[in-house]
Design a protein that fits this description.
The chain contains 4 helices and 8 strands; from the N terminus they run H-H-E-E-E-H-E-E-E-E-E-H. About 10% of the residues have low confidence. The radius of gyration is 21 Å and the shape is globular. It has a single domain, classed as OB fold (Dihydrolipoamide Acetyltransferase, E2P), CATH 2.40.50.140. The protein has about 190 residues and is of the alpha+beta class. A 5-stranded mixed barrel has the order 1-2-3-5-4.
Length: about 190
C-alpha cells in the first residue's frame, strides 16, 4: 500500500513539474494588421445576438454595429463585427476570452480589428477576441486603452498616435503588396 501511494505521489509531482505552453501569441500592431483586413474607430450603435453552428452546434455570437471611420483609410464606415459568446443573460453563453461587457456596450467608443470568416457567411469577425480596444477620454483627449504585454497596444496610447501608426503601417503594407505584384508580373 505504501509503495502504491508513493508511486501516485511521484506521478502527480512529475505531472505538475512538466512545462506548460501558452496558446496566446504575442503580436505587435504591424503583425495584427498583416492578418486582419479592417480597422474601425467609432461608437457601438447596436448589439444583437446571432446563433450559428460554428464553431459548435447552436453557438451564440454577438454582433456589434460600429459607426465611425476606417482607421486605415480615414473614410467614414459602418461595419458589423462579430465575436463568439454573449453577455446577454438570456443567452447563457459566455466565454472567458471574449471581449468584456465594458468594451462592448452600446455607446462605447472603440478601435476594432476584424476579418471576414467564410464559416460565418463572410461576416466580419473580431480578431482573436482581443481585437477590440476601448477608447476613453483622458485630459480631454481620446486614448486607446492598452491591454498589457503581448497585445498590439500594450499601454494606453493617444488615439491620434494610433491613427498615425495604423495608417503608416497600412501604406507600408500596400506598397509591399504592389512591389510583390510587380515582381511576379515580370
Amino acid at each position: 500500500m505504501l509503495v502504491k501511494r508513493s508511486f501516485v505521489t511521484l506521478a502527480v509531482a512529475l505531472t505538475l513539474a512538466l512545462p506548460t505552453v501558452a496558446s496566446i501569441k504575442a503580436m505587435t500592431l504591424k503583425e495584427l494588421m498583416s492578418i486582419t483586413s479592417g480597422t474601425v474607430h467609432g461608437t457601438i450603435v447596436a448589439r444583437e445576438t446571432l446563433r450559428s453552428d460554428f464553431p459548435l452546434p447552436n453557438a451564440v455570437h454577438t454582433v456589434l454595429t460600429i459607426e465611425g471611420e476606417d482607421v486605415r483609410t480615414g473614410e467614414p464606415i459602418q461595419v458589423k463585427v462579430t465575436f463568439h459568446g454573449s453577455h446577454d443573460v438570456d443567452d447563457r453563453y459566455t466565454i472567458s476570452e471574449m471581449p468584456t461587457l465594458q468594451d462592448t456596450r452600446v455607446g462605447t467608443e472603440v478601435v476594432a480589428f476584424y476579418n471576414p470568416r467564410k464559416e460565418l457567411d463572410g461576416r466580419q469577425v473580431v480578431y482573436d477576441y482581443s481585437g477590440i480596444y476601448r477608447v476613453e477620454r483622458a485630459f480631454g483627449q481620446p486614448v486607446v486603452m492598452g491591454k498589457g504585454e503581448g497585445f498590439a497596444f500594450e499601454k494606453n496610447e493617444k488615439l491620434d498616435a494610433v491613427r498615425t501608426r495604423v495608417r503608416a503601417i497600412h501604406k507600408e503594407q500596400l506598397l509591399a503588396k504592389q512591389q510583390l505584384k510587380l515582381g511576379t508580373d515580370k
